[in-house]
Amino acid sequence: MMLKPARLLLVLVAMAAAPAFAQNVATVNGKPIPAAKVEQIVKQVVAQGKQTDSPQLREAIKKDLIAREVMIQEADKQGFGTRAEVKQALENARQSIVINAMLADYVRKNPVKDTEAKAEYDKYKAQMGDKEYHARHILVATEDEAKAIIAKLKTGAKFEELAKQSKDSSAANGGDLDWASPANYVPEFSKAMVALQKGAITDTPVKTQYGYHVIKLEDTRPAKIPPFEEVKQQVNESLQQRKLQAFREELMKKAKIQ
Prior knowledge:
By secondary structure, the chain is α+β, with helices and mostly antiparallel strands.
């Protein structure tokens, strides 16, 4: 049976319209919300690892997009988009989005190489050394104060008690600096600390940029440095931040700033 021309035209129109309708999840006051927009947000949410793709997730995203469209239409109707402060906020957001896209592209094109990460790890490992030190110290403003403390210690005064007069936060804990690598301290402090025997106290005040120190070495132990594979991600992130910083600085140098 052949369809009449008029009916055939209606069927063809409906067939042509079906794919277009399928491209939208809804329309709000005549404004379509593309299905592609839902797909994009689903991918972003799933990529963050917080949720998995599901009908419930898609429905929630669809409802949110509909609500947002209703709200933006009303906001536009009331003229909020033309307000100066809103325009400025939009421009700030635009700049951030564009800059972040550029930086993300830079990261993709300039990834941290495994050789770079391993070299950085080896450098860090060498700086940390093979020992950790558990030390206490008393920090004072003058050399005479430090000498007086050393004299009291030699006559039997308790280090932890005298440390209460230290002018840094360790005073409340008897001058305890806990376990650390020599690389964590300024060179003058480290040199004096590593020269001590277990239980010994510096014979003379140690001068640094912070003042005068009296140092006691409680103990030493082999350094606990995690293997490369355990910290590879952190090393990569640190190096990537350095590359981004260098990229920013290079752009600033090239710019004509008056």
